[in-house]
Amino acid sequence: MARKKRPEWLDYEKLAAKIIAELRPHATVTHDDYVVGHESEARRQIDVTARWMDDQAERLLIVQVRDYKRRADVNVVGEFKSVIHDVRADRGILICSGGFSKTAITYARNIGIELFSLSDGESRRWELELTVPTLWHRYIPYIRMASQVHIKDAPLNIQLREDKSLPLICSDGVTPYDLVAEFKAAWDSGALSYEPDKEHAFPVEGTLLLAGLRPSGEVQLCETKSIKVTYTVERATYLGQLKPLDYRGLIDHLDNQNFLPSYLAMEFPPLESDTWTKITHPDRLAINVAGFFITAEDARISTAQYENLNFRYLGP
């Protein structure tokens, strides 16, 4: 026997419950619930309920879902109004896949009922051609290191490593010290400040040694003193439009059908692409967007290089 296909209206109700639960993570959301009416004293079937505590009082949001091909009319709103009143709900949301008539929108706005339809990126029937205005902040650190090195026997040849870094050695005299790797680990973990246009200190633990070659070819380890590592952060800002990989949310029929997302899965293209426009003064940028936009921050260190290595002789 062929397995009976689940009706689409049931999928639409379950999608509504999922979105409400994502938008209200601290509430108890129930699909296909029953609430006893105060006046009817009957168990009223509610497609989705959300309950939460607010100032020691339990709040109730009820959601009725209609998977109609046609627009819901003023009578549907009126019927829902009576249910809200009977169960003493704090808020009422009416969801209809076919939208709402003009009189239904006017009536709902005047009596405080919210009107939505659903959108889901995984469903062809309920998908939305969605692009998201995005402000992308990219944080780039610049490190500076200063120290004194005590050289016992001169002359001493200092050979930079292949990545142009100084041949620093940990205090055990064996383990190489990679300043960029140490900084990157702390930076990526979020332990360091991203505040731009300010000098920050980066602590270096323990004593570091500098490896050099004497004319005989013998390696000499010289102790470094007064090590000071600081960094500054440059913030570059870009403005663009992104198409989500996946999404779910509500379409607000009382607010120009703006989209209220409950879930967004985004993938950021390279900043070098034509999708992004660099903004010189982001603090002066006025964004007038109907609906929503997102602000993303990228502080990952993908590449690093050494520049401007300067040595100064301080005397014997």
Automatic annotation (TrEMBL):
Residue stretches making up the Restriction endonuclease type IV Mrr domain: 39-117
BP-aspect Gene Ontology terms: DNA restriction-modification system
Coiled-coil residue windows: none
GO molecular function annotations of the record: DNA binding; endonuclease activity
Alphabetical list of InterPro entries matching this protein: Restrct_endonuc-II-like (IPR011335), Restrct_endonuc_IV_Mrr (IPR007560), tRNA_endonuc-like_dom_sf (IPR011856)
Name this polypeptide is given: Restriction endonuclease type IV Mrr domain-containing protein
Organism: Amycolatopsis taiwanensis
